[in-house]
Amino acid sequence: MAAALMVATAVPAHALTIAPDSVPQRSEMAVVYDDGTEVDSANAHQPREAMSLAKLYLGHWVLHHGAPEDQALVENMIRFSDDGVATTRDRKYPQAIPETISAFGLGETSYNGYWGDTTTSVSDVARFLQAIRNDAASQPIINGMSTAHPLAADGYVQNYGTSQIKGVQGTKYGWSDDRSVNGTASIGPDYTIAIITFGTAADATSDALGAVTDDSQTAASQLKDKLRCHMDQGSSSVLDQVLNDQTPVPQQVVDAILAC
Fold first, then answer.
1. How far is residue 144 from each of residues 73, 83, 157, measured CA to CA in Å?
2. Is 198 exposed, middle or buried (0-12, 13-18, 19+ CB in 10 A)?
3. Which tens digit of pLDDT belongs to each residue from 229-239?
4. CA separation (Å) from 186 to 139, 240, 260?
């Protein structure tokens, strides 16, 4: 804990700051800034289920080494978190995730013979995303994150966790089969951030937003501000009754509303 707090005090001005000691034990959280600074919760190096966050590792390898027809599937695999595409590529390229682990020094990540059984830490995920975010060949991953569909291929709602932090530009979502573990990894203006929660999607959102220490608005708060300027005073007053600041809102919805 002391180490995490020492790192936090050394962070210069960034688009996002967090208080790592405020993250509940059920969640682990890491932020990696573009200057290399990392701020972690005390358990950020603990391997947990990677869930569909493992598709980031798989997709990167396919984009760099896979056949063109497989590369063409990566963006939608990320956008819709498509298990079928991931399973087929994982079977075709069983070396993909292990080689990605080795190439990026992901010492807290393990491939156990199937992408869905991969374990990782939020530190590994956030560091990996920071390393690839400006890589031209990896842009289908970034594009898929920035246009994540509100509903995944299996129908799961993709609008929680770190995606709800103001300024986030794209998110990859992950959840366990029984929905008892949820995680997200997001890209912001000068940072990458990841959370994995032993709990619901709402728990992941609460823990992510609860750790933010600056004046960043949630996506719901941004949406209300945009809507108010298009409404009369009477209608505007209803907004707070039907939409609270913690309500999950896809960032695409916020971005689609024109500013006044």
1. 11, 15, 16
2. middle
3. 777 656 666 76
4. 14, 27, 28
Q: Which domains does the chain possess?
A: 2-211 (3.40.710.10), 219-256 (no CATH)
- The C-alpha atoms of residue 38 and residue 10 are separated, in whole angstroms, by 10
- Against a cut of 0.90, is the pTM above it? no
H runs (alpha helix) in the chain = 2-9, 54-65, 68-71, 74-79, 83-92, 96-104, 122-132, 139-146, 201-211, 219-228, 233-242, 251-256
User: In the 8-state DSSP scheme, what is residue 18?
Assistant: B
Rounded to the nearest 10 degrees, the angle between the axes of helix 96-104 and helix 83-92 is 90
Q: Is the pLDDT of residue 174 over 80?
A: yes
What do you get for the CA distance between the two ends of the chain, in Å?
Answer: 44
Per-chain mean pLDDT for the chain? 90
> What gap in Å lies between CA 54 and CA 227, rounded to an integer?
37
Q: Is the pLDDT of residue 250 over 90?
A: no
Cα 35 versus chain centre, distance: 19
Query: What pLDDT is stored for residue 237 in this prediction?
Result: 60
Can you give the pLDDT at residue 3?
41
Element containing residue 32 per DSSP (H, E): strand 27-33
Q: Is the pLDDT of residue 92 over 60?
A: yes
